[in-house]
């Protein structure tokens, strides 16, 4: 059995094949009534959560920080995209990707000063800064009536399953490549020991900026997709509770692991839907599962490990450990 | 190895999630209610009234659908008084549970997103209690086709209240304190200000708080410094109680006036002595003497041990309207039900006569002014717009 | 003008003392374990509910002080229990796991309470409050009580830390946790005691909050917990005096922002100001940058 799994793991075309199959399935869902509308929305939500998870994992998992402000980037992306699609752009095929790109860019722009702030502070102090940032974003949106203020906006529904899948693939691909590159090693080095890394000549500042900006870009992308599937966005949806949910997903799936992010997002979203009949007791069971998981596997389901399909070839074809 | 089983189990479970509800043939009506969150008493009232109606209808044999009698199945979803949850529940009721129509949500901040879902998926929806105009109007201000309501709308209510303050209480200065993050209070505050000032009144303070706040001392101190005769509080019952308490604690003696959002009896329990003597606008009063209303009040009190509030009454009427429409249409088809609903001639409901004008989802309703006296709601006057 | 400011100051003191009490709990736990106990906000909420249960469900009418002490005892024990069950096994795991466990515990507490009590509950007044008026300033005896009790508890804590053996042990553990067991101090017991005291303070804050704003609901701990955490960090997390300072600063900023600016900008102003403080003093006003061994 192990050999079978091993050969599946080493199969380099497995992942591209899966991606193509996924794409075909989502396109089929678009044109044939395979899934009802509600299940489609659930799947889109899973996709959005995967993007959120993977992007937060970059900062929280790979870089070892504790950012609780991710919902703020989501909010920025959502509102930027909503502005684009409701007020500024005409309806066209490119409306969604442009909106999403714009959302991501706005979020990344705001992620940049946050990265600068992270130079001086670490750990829990950075957590507070990200928390304050989240509250500021929410409060700022509430006060700007051009975007509807506290009563929210109604962006048109443009997110479809194929587009969501597309953005999920892009996110995972970019982050995976980032993590296994020179910058990725720098980011991991910062997590392990920042001062030592600095002493060894690692470009800590650039790495931090890159990590934060990438993370916030994809946070914004997720937010934009969320806006365009949800008919309605308001500042209340992007509060600390949402940030907590994203944190739960990340740590559930496993820190510093893209496969973990995907697993965490899927489990969380699906469980939340399936356990619907339990009402508020779902939110007792889910955190309980998380706590138990932390007690037995403190790094999450796939903490620090990775699905073999994501590893680059050089990691995979190493000589087996004695 | 374990991971694979885990994954497989998750995927299998998600397949379950895609399954709808099966069972014996019935007419499915959805209820999108605020059962948890900021205003659970509102959701509970709605659910009680809906279940009462369904119980009575099914006991009488069910709904007559072109010859066959089918039981009504009420499918309840909890929107937690949150906009995004309301939308999800609406989506689930419409696409997965396949309800023929949806009742609710009651709070405007939930009703508006749910109404967009209903309109997009062409499912008739009646909100019992949402007063904000945007529920039945789309982005461009034109009426939606599938969304109706059972109550009056904010512009009407604001006029009633402003006139009441000016003519009955004879006050010319007023302060307003409202929840900036919530649709109905926000709309009502702004409309009240507009009408009040148009008719010669003066708004001396226009303060805000946000949903979830409990400390209003700072805003109240600011209001007190302006010495208004009347403080207008278009808040939901939990905030109204908290604000009046703190205001009295600070020594504010102004007269409180509220909107229909106060209407839950919980407001008296939570507000206590401090809310005595306040006026507010409502959709109906238990003291109204029509036979339909009397029977409803008696049935509700017998089943639930307390008198129904306006949310319950309006939900009961909404259920009545929908079932009447389904009966007229003769089949559980959303388009047919919608058309029948729009054309219903005068429906005698608990809260008065309901009829929709062509092209509008808003009925012409009357309002009453109630006062909290002796721990009860007492009818004072009929609203004059 | 002066009276307006004075009135708002009293409001700020009330809000600030509650924030300070909660922030103390965060700081104490951080000091000994370098861990943020995110379940603290929900322990605060439980304090209010415990007060409700004791005041309403018991057939005997207990005086205010007794209820306060009982609430502190019960919540303190609960806090120590959570530490024993959920945090101690994770002592050697990465810090973040403990924090996430705390978050999870908090969510469990919050949602269990929400499932058992979906309606906001009304806390009956345990204390007949009179309103005192002096030349336009109104203070209720309730407000005086809350500020007084909060300040009393803070002074008591300060004495505890500076004058007792337990306090010395706590300070020793925050100074150098690894050497302390070599000195014969039972570290685990001290940590449990720290949680007990910290949670007790949080529970007391919950009860006082419930008295001040008599509507309690299961979700009231969430936002307040995070705000108090911010307050603790502003003051310098790990520092007891910093927590108190941070609490009053946060309360003051929130109230004064409403007092002198349009109230819709309250959150925006408060958090921007706090962010600014952190930018200039990244380790808080009274905090020390941690010594990092390279």
Structure description:
The complex is a heterotrimer of chains A (322), B (385) and C (294). Chain A is mainly α and 322 residues long. In chain A, 71% of the residues lie in helices and 0% in strands. The model of chain A has no long low-confidence stretch (mean pLDDT 84). By secondary structure, chain B is α/β, with parallel strands linked by helices. Chain B folds into two domains: 24-152 and 290-354, Rossmann fold; 154-282 and 368-382, Response regulator (Rossmann fold), CATH 3.40.50. Helix content of chain B is 43%, strand content 19%. Chain B has helices spanning 2-18, 40-59, 83-96, 108-120, 154-168, 183-198, 217-226, 237-249, 266-271, 291-304, 310-329, 334-342; strands at residues 27-33, 63-65, 68-70, 72-78, 101-103, 125-127, 147-149, 173-179, 202-209, 230-233, 255-258, 279-282, 347-349, 352-354, 368-373, 376-382. In chain B, helix 8 (237-249) links the parallel strand 10 and strand 11. Chain C has one domain (2-280): ABC transporter involved in vitamin B12 uptake, BtuC (Orthogonal Bundle). In chain C, helix 1 (2-33) packs across helix 6 and helix 2 (40-57) crosses helix 3 (64-87). The N and C termini of chain C lie far apart (56 Å). The chains are: A mainly alpha (322), B alpha/beta (385), C mainly alpha (294). Chains A and C meet through helix 6, helix 9, helix 11 and helix 13 of A and helix 4, helix 8 and helix 10 of C.
């Amino acid at each position: 059995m192990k050999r079978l799994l091993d050969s599946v793991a080493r199969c380099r075309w497995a992942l591209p094949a899966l991606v193509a199959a996924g794409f075909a399935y989502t396109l089929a869902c678009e044109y044939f009534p395979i899934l009802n509308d509600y299940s489609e929305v659930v799947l889109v939500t899973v996709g959005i959560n995967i993007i959120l998870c993977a992007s937060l994992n970059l900062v929280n998992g790979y870089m070892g920080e504790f950012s609780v402000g991710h919902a703020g980037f989501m909010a920025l992306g959502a509102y930027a995209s909503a502005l684009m699609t409701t007020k500024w752009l005409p309806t066209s095929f490119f409306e969604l990707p442009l909106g999403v790109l714009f959302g991501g860019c706005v979020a990344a722009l705001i992620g940049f000063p946050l990265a600068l702030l992270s130079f001086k502070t670490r750990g829990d102090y950075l957590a507070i800064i990200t928390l304050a940032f989240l509250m500021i974003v929410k409060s700022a949106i509430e006060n700007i009536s051009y975007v509807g203020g506290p009563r929210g906006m109604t962006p048109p529904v443009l997110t479809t399953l194929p587009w969501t899948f597309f953005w999920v693939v892009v996110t995972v691909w970019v982050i995976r490549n980032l993590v296994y590159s020179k910058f990725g090693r720098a980011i991991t080095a910062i997590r392990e020991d920042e001062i030592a890394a600095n002493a060894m000549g690692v470009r800590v500042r650039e790495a931090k900026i890159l990590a934060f900006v990438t993370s916030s870009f994809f946070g914004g992308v997720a937010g934009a997709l969320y806006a365009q599937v949800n008919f309605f966005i308001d500042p209340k949806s992007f509060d600390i509770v949402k940030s907590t949910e994203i944190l739960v997903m990340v740590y559930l799936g496993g820190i510093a692991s893209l496969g973990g992010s995907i697993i965490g997002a899927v489990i969380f979203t699906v469980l939340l839907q399936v356990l619907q009949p339990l009402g508020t007791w779902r939110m007792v069971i889910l955190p309980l599962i998380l706590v138990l998981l932390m007690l037995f596997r403190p790094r999450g389901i796939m903490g620090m490990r990775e699905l073999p399909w994501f590893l680059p070839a050089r990691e995979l074809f190493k000589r087996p450990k004695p | 190895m374990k991971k694979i089983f885990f994954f497989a189990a998750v995927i299998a479970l998600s397949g379950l999630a895609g399954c709808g509800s099966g069972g014996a043939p019935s007419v499915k009506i959805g209820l999108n209610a605020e059962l948890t969150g900021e205003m659970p008493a509102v959701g509970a009232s709605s659910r009680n009234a809906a279940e009462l109606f369904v119980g009575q209808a099914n006991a009488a044999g069910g709904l007559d659908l072109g010859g066959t009698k089918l039981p009504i199945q009420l499918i309840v979803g909890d929107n937690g008084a949150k906009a995004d949850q309301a939308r999800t529940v609406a989506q689930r009721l419409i696409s997965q549970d396949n309800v023929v129509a949806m009742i609710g949500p009651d709070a405007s901040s939930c009703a508006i997103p749910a109404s967009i879902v209903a309109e997009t998926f062409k499912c008739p929806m009646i909100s019992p209690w949402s007063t904000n105009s945007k529920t039945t109007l789309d982005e461009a201000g034109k009426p939606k086709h599938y969304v109706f309501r059972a109550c009056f709308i904010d512009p009407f209510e604001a006029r009633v209240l402003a006139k009441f303050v000016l003519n009955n209480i004879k006050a010319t200065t007023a302060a307003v304190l409202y929840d900036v993050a919530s649709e109905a209070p926000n709309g009502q505050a702004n409309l009240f200000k507009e009408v009040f000032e148009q008719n010669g009144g003066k708004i001396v303070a226009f303060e805000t708080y946000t949903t979830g706040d409990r400390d209003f001392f700072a805003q109240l101190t600011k209001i007190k410094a302006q010495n208004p005769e009347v403080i207008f509080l278009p808040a939901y019952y939990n905030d109204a109680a908290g604000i009046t308490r703190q205001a009295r604690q600070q020594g504010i003696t102004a007269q409180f006036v509220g909107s229909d959002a106060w209407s839950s009896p919980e407001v008296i329990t939570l507000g206590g002595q401090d809310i005595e003597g306040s006026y507010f606008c409502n959709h109906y009063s238990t003291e109204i003497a029509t036979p339909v209303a009397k029977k409803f009040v008696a049935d509700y009190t017998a089943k639930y041990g307390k008198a129904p509030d306006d949310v319950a009454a309006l939900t009961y009427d909404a259920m009545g309207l929908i079932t009447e429409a389904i009966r007229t249409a003769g089949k559980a088809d959303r388009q047919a039900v919608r058309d029948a609903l729009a054309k219903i001639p005068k429906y005698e409901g608990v809260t008065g006569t309901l009829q929709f004008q062509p092209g509008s989802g808003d009925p012409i309703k009357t309002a009453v002014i109630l006062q909290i006296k002796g721990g009860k709601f007492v009818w004072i006057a009929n609203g004059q717009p | 003008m002066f009276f307006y400011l004075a009135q708002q100051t009293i409001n700020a003191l009330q809000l600030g003392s509650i924030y300070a009490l909660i922030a103390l709990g965060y700081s104490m736990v951080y000091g000994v374990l370098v861990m943020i106990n995110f379940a603290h906000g929900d322990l605060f909420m439980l304090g209010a509910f415990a007060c409700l249960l004791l005041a309403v469900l018991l057939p005997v009418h207990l005086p205010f002080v007794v209820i306060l002490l009982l609430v502190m005892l019960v919540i303190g024990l609960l806090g120590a229990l959570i530490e024993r069950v959920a945090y101690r096994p994770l002592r050697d795991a990465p810090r973040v796991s403990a924090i996430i466990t705390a978050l999870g515990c908090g969510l469990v507490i919050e949602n269990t309470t929400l499932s058992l009590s979906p309606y906001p509950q009304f806390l009956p007044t345990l204390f007949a409050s009179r309103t005192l008026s002096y030349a336009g300033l109104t203070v209720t005896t309730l407000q005086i009580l809350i500020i007084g009790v909060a300040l009393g508890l803070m002074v008591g804590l300060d004495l505890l830390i500076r004058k007792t053996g337990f306090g010395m042990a706590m300070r020793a553990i925050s100074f150098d946790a690894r050497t302390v067991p070599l000195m014969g101090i039972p570290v685990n017991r001290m940590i449990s005691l720290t949680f007990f005291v910290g949670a007790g303070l949080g529970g007391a804050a919950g009860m006082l909050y419930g008295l001040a704003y008599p509507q309690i609901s299961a979700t009231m701990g969430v936002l307040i917990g995070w705000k108090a955490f911010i307050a603790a960090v502003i003051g310098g997390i790990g520092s007891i005096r910093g927590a108190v300072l941070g609490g009053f600063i946060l309360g003051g900023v929130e109230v004064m922002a409403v007092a002198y600016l349009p109230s819709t900008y309250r959150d925006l102003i408060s958090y921007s100001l706090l962010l600014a403080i952190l930018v200039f003093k990244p380790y808080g006003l009274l905090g020390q940058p941690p010594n990092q061994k390279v």
